[in-house]
Amino acid sequence: MSLPLQLTKSGQLKHFLSIDGLDQALLTEILDTAESFAGMSEHQVKKVPLLRGKTIVNLFFENSTRTRTTFELAATRLSADVLNINIATSATSKGESLLDTIRNLEAMHVDMFVVRHAISGAAHFIAQHTAPHISVINAGDGQHAHPTQAMLDMFTIRQHKKQFAGLKVAIVGDILHSRVARSQIRALNALGVAEVRVIAPKTLLPAYVESMGVIPLHDMHEGLRDVDVIIMLRLQKERMNSAFLPSEGEFFRCYGLTEAKLKLAKPDAIVMHPGPINRGVEIASSVADGPQSVILQQVSNGIAVRMAIMTMTMGSHGASV
Amino acid sequence: MSLPLQLTKSGQLKHFLSIDGLDQALLTEILDTAESFAGMSEHQVKKVPLLRGKTIVNLFFENSTRTRTTFELAATRLSADVLNINIATSATSKGESLLDTIRNLEAMHVDMFVVRHAISGAAHFIAQHTAPHISVINAGDGQHAHPTQAMLDMFTIRQHKKQFAGLKVAIVGDILHSRVARSQIRALNALGVAEVRVIAPKTLLPAYVESMGVIPLHDMHEGLRDVDVIIMLRLQKERMNSAFLPSEGEFFRCYGLTEAKLKLAKPDAIVMHPGPINRGVEIASSVADGPQSVILQQVSNGIAVRMAIMTMTMGSHGASV
Amino acid sequence: MSLPLQLTKSGQLKHFLSIDGLDQALLTEILDTAESFAGMSEHQVKKVPLLRGKTIVNLFFENSTRTRTTFELAATRLSADVLNINIATSATSKGESLLDTIRNLEAMHVDMFVVRHAISGAAHFIAQHTAPHISVINAGDGQHAHPTQAMLDMFTIRQHKKQFAGLKVAIVGDILHSRVARSQIRALNALGVAEVRVIAPKTLLPAYVESMGVIPLHDMHEGLRDVDVIIMLRLQKERMNSAFLPSEGEFFRCYGLTEAKLKLAKPDAIVMHPGPINRGVEIASSVADGPQSVILQQVSNGIAVRMAIMTMTMGSHGASV
């Protein structure tokens, strides 16, 4: 489905909408390109002129300072000009259609849309209808996908585990509502890990989740045994009072990651979380801040991975940094 | 009135507040300068260093993401630094007077104010009281003027019609409340078109509108006959429930531009609209997206025209691009 | 207390949190560095590449367009990249702790936090817990300190009076709630003025104010006699209805600066105010706009002083401009 949309005829990345349809070679190319940017942050001057004169529009229909910030920093460090448009509070309040908003920005000769939207498929829709010279990056759409988050997670895993073959990975928490989990599962399988387990109460697992290539489990003690990587998901507090979940305390007791439960995993297992973390809800502070946590490295890697995806979609395939 | 204010003694553009008082030669100079910037958007690097080190303040007392965006892009492509100040939500909430806000920004050595204000005359007031080294551009003041919009419209007309002499232009819709229409009428007459018609119900025409050099008409069939250019105005929906107008459907039936009515104009007539458009209210989608529509070209031209006005008022008269 | 925190072992400025613990030599170094930037505003291109590639985060937990603007301009003129984060409206709304917000931004390899917070000590707290490569600048914390404001005031005083020795300075108004006054008193005493007087009703003076090295007075006629510098504080209107104060008119009559009262000071006394001014509340318009007022020069100097503090804390000690 998305394959013809996000790739050029010669198989290069044109948009970045979803992990679906991207093969191991392309995902590895993204990770390798990100590698070349990862060292840059240590430099005295953290900028390269790869996208100088390009205009990147952060088109946020859903407010997310955190995600916007990482894209803004990535764009700035590539010397692009950034235009932040918070649609929630502005433009379309005059009743303009999404397509007319896009057409107008295109006419201003912008080069890229970074799209965040509460509705699944919004970034795809924009990519389908935008001008050929514009690239679209999905910065999270509804419960569908958050592919740049998944790629920074893959980068972090590779950084610590060197290769994906043979790895056992557990994803824990609200799989049902998580666009992050959906993208991670696709990426992990495409990159060839041995096993992806999803651990959650039945109410927080999608129906037919096995069809995504995962092993569903309801018990942490069973699920964490001998894994190399543990990915904790953020518990959306707004779901807490719903029928999905009993209480924060109850959830933490069953599915929170504590030092005791962490011992079930391999001794060199790494602990990941997309942030922002709820301390004492899905993860104990001692684990989040502990020696096996790579949560802040994920944040750092997020800049490099987004720089890679931006340059690749814009046709500048990671020129020498 | 505004002539001595917006021109230097030698007749060069110092502020850009209104079309009033600007003669054909100066308006033509703006269009010619914009021409030199219009090609730039195709370049790999869309920036020129003409205003490097200059600080341009977007001083918006009225929220308008759309207009702010075009000025921000124009300034960025001239390599200026842009400071966005949304007064509605900030600064003067501490009760500071407009003049004190201006004095403070002047003291920070900024170089230009781009002013949007709900009150007619606000940009003039600021230009009258600001320091001599600062230029003021009117980005829309009350129901008075929106001169950069008018100039991008003139640019678009010239692009398609080559010259203004002999042209018949119809402006359709809510003339009474439109700062855009007021500025367009001045510009069209200064540039020497043959005829400007304004088409609207009586309740949406200003009294003594003929004194502005236009022919008022109440019927589209009469008004559109043989025109070269049709400019549709946006219908402010907030006026809909007032005494001015019957209903959306009724308005569209009488004054909306359809393919059938468009046939009354010359076969090569162009259709313009300042945006954002209300599809099915003042214009049919098939016309807005049709072959005679130049609506998106207007948006593109808006960047070039604003770059021209910024460099001219700052004394850099369109150096080689 | 703050001495070991804001200085390196070799005594150089690492953070800028408070005037406390900074000696005359260091304060003078700040003023001298600012001097080298003060001339820049006159240049055609108002930028130097001293902080190119650095990322400066305006971390505002309290909204202040005015203060944010001065830091943004200072950073931009040093060629740094600026990230504005308004925490009030965003990020921590998801319930993330302050420390987690800081850790995340650190992980994005930012270089400086400019912190504004309603709670006294917030900037210190962040400086205590942030990564070693990051500098923190206090842009106002609760009723504690506003040290960059104090330094721009010192710069303005030196500009007019050449030296601090022998000067008599009066600070007038709501001393009790003013972080500005607290920082000014420290700076004036560290720089060796002859006398600092604080003039206010008893309800607006802190207990034991004498221990700060000032002479408390309740009467303007006594307090202004023969002073070289008068610093008026802004009256926070929100305190007006409290028990602290009678009425605006009453306050102006007793503690407002009029031309008549100004005559009590030395003939060449200068009048200062941190802004925004309440005309007719703490200061008469004729005085604010009069020949002895240096209020707008304070604003101009604010940019240069903040550029100096930014470059000094970042280890670029005022390289040639």
From TrEMBL, chains A, B, C:
Residues binding carbamoyl phosphate: 66-67, 116, 146, 149, 275-276
GO cellular component: cytosol
Record field: catalytic activity: carbamoyl phosphate + L-aspartate = N-carbamoyl-L-aspartate + phosphate + H(+)
Gene Ontology terms, MF aspect: amino acid binding; aspartate carbamoyltransferase activity
Enzyme Commission identifier(s): 2.1.3.2
Record domain Aspartate/ornithine carbamoyltransferase Asp/Orn-binding: where: 166-312
One of the GO biological process terms: 'de novo' pyrimidine nucleobase biosynthetic process
Membrane-spanning segments: none
InterPro entries to which the protein is assigned, alphabetical: Asp/Orn_carbamoyltranf_P-bd, Asp/Orn_carbamoylTrfase, Asp/Orn_carbamoylTrfase_sf, Asp_carbamoyltransf, Asp_carbamoyltransf_Asp/Orn-bd
Gene3D superfamilies: Aspartate/ornithine carbamoyltransferase
Subunit organization: Heterododecamer (2C3:3R2) of six catalytic PyrB chains organized as two trimers (C3), and six regulatory PyrI chains organized as three dimers (R2).
Entry-linked NCBIfam families: asp_carb_tr, PRK00856.1
Described function: Catalyzes the condensation of carbamoyl phosphate and aspartate to form carbamoyl aspartate and inorganic phosphate, the committed step in the de novo pyrimidine nucleotide biosynthesis pathway.
Protein name: Aspartate carbamoyltransferase
Classification lineage: Bacteria, Pseudomonadati, Pseudomonadota, Gammaproteobacteria, Methylococcales
